[in-house]
Amino acid sequence: MRLSRRAFVQALGIGGAGALSGPLVAARGREDLMGRTRGRPEPSDWVPGLEAPKAVRLSSNENPNGPGARALDAIRAALVDANRYPFSQKSDVTAAIAGKLGVATNQVMAACGSGEILRLCALACTSPTRHLVAGLPTFEEPAGTARVIGAEVRSVRVDTSLKLDLDAMLAEVKGAGLIFFCNPNNPTATVHTDAAVRDFIGRVRRVSPDTVVLVDEAYHEYVDDPGYRTAISIALEDPNVIVSRTFSKIYGMAGLRLGYAVARKETLDRLAPHQLSSNVNVLVAMAGVATLEDDERVAREQRLNREARAFTRKALADLGYPSAESQTNFIMVPIRRDAKGFQDECRARGILVGRVFPPLVDHARISIGTMDEMRQAVDVFRQVLGTTGFSRG
Predict the structure, then answer these.
(1) How far apart are the first and last CA of the chain?
(2) Element (H, E) at 371
C-alpha cells in the first residue's frame, strides 16, 4: 500500500486527534507480524488492519487506547520541525525522562523503542565467547541478536508458576556476557519482587562478576504486586546492571517507537558505539516529553487495564480455564489444548491472540483490549473452547 504525501498529511491530522490515533500511528506490533508471517512479511502485513480490518487485535500487548491527547497535540506542533534532524529533540526527551526519574541525563539513553536497547545490550555484551542467559519463554529480541553475532543462547525454562527460574538461570551464569531478566516477564505475565531481584543479582556477582544483567521493565507501570520495585536504583549502584523501559505500553505509543535505558554513564558508554545517532525522530521525541507529565492519563490507563483484565480472567475461569494473576496488560491462559489451533480458530472468528510460545504450547497469551473488545473476545473464546475440532494437550 503506497501512501501519498496528501494522504499522509491528512492522516497526521490536520483534521484532529481522531485521525492521529488511527492505524498509521498506533501500529499493531512486530510480534503479531512475525508470528503470522514467519519473518517474511507481505506488504499488506505492514499496514495494520489491511489483512483483517475488523479483527480485534489482542496479539501484541499494545495499549488499545493509543497515545493521549497531550502526545497527539505535541506531534502536530512538532510537524513544523520535521525537515530538521532530531538532535535537540532527542536531548529534550532524554532530559525529560531523567527529570521524571530523578536521575542525571547522562544516566539515560533514549532509543527507538526498548527493543533497540535490548539489541544494543546483546551487541555490546555477548560474543562467540560470552553467552546469553534468558528465560524460556521470554521476549525474544536479545536472543535473536545474540545468535546473529554467533553468541550461544542458554534458555532456561520457566518454573511451574510460570516465573523465571532464577536458581536454574544462575546455574548457567558463569562466563556469561549478558543475562536477560524480563520483569514482569513477557509472555507469562509474572513478576519477581525487589527482594528476589536483589538477591539474584547479588548471587550473579559472586559467581560471574563481569556479567551484565539487563532488567526489562516494559510493563513496569502495570504492576500491582506490593513487593515489586523498579531496579533503577540497583542500576545506578552497579555498573553491570541496565534497566530498559518503553513508551509502547502504558503510553500507547507502540507505533511511534520510543524507549530508553537507565544505567551508569560508563555502562551506557558501552552501548553507544552500536547506536544510530538519529534513532529518535522529532515527532516521537516531542510526544514523549508531553506524555511523561500526564499522570492522570497513566492512572486512567492502569484502571481500565485492571478492570478489563479482571473481567477477562473471571470469564475464562468461569469457563474452566483459570489463569495466574497477571502483572501486565496481558494474560497467559492454560487452555489445555493446542495453542496454534486455538489461535487459528479465534482468528477465523475475528479475534487475534498471541502466537505460540514454546514450550508452553498449551497456553494462550491474550492481550487486554478495551472492555468492549474483551466482551467480544470472551464470546469467541466461549465458542472455541467449547469445540473439539482441534487437538487437546
Answers:
(1) 40
(2) helix 371-385
Give the pLDDT confidence score for residue 37 in this predicted structure: 44
71-292: CATH, from 1.10.760.10, 3.30.428.10, 3.40.640.10, 2.60.260.20: 3.40.640.10
- What is the percent of the chain with per-residue pLDDT over 90, rounded to a whole number? 83
Helix (H/G/I), strand (E/B), else coil: 305: helix
DSSP string spanning 174-191? TT-SEEEEESS-TTT---
From the CB of residue 375, how many other CB atoms can be counted at a distance below 10 Å? 15
Which CATH architecture fits 5-66+295-385? Alpha-Beta Complex (3.90)
Q: How many CA atoms lie within 13 A of 362 on its CB side?
A: 8
CA separation for the pair 185, 197 (Å, rounded): 13
* Dist. CA 143–CA 118, nearest whole Å: 9
What is the value of pTM for the model shown? 0.87
Tell me how long the chain is: 393
For cell 507480524, the residue is 33
Say how far apart CA 9 and CA 250 lie, in whole Å.
27
pLDDT in tens, 108-159: 999 999 999 999 999 999 999 999 999 999 999 999 999 999 999 999 999 9
Nearest to 61 by CA among 392, 357, 393: 357
Beta 259-262 vs 153-157: how paired, if at all? unpaired
Q: Where are the domains of the chain?
A: 5-66+295-385, 71-292
The Cα-based distances of 313 to 27, 81, 154, 254, 378 in angstroms read: 26, 45, 32, 24, 10
Which H helix or E strand runs over 157? strand 153-157
Grid coordinates given for 352: 487475534
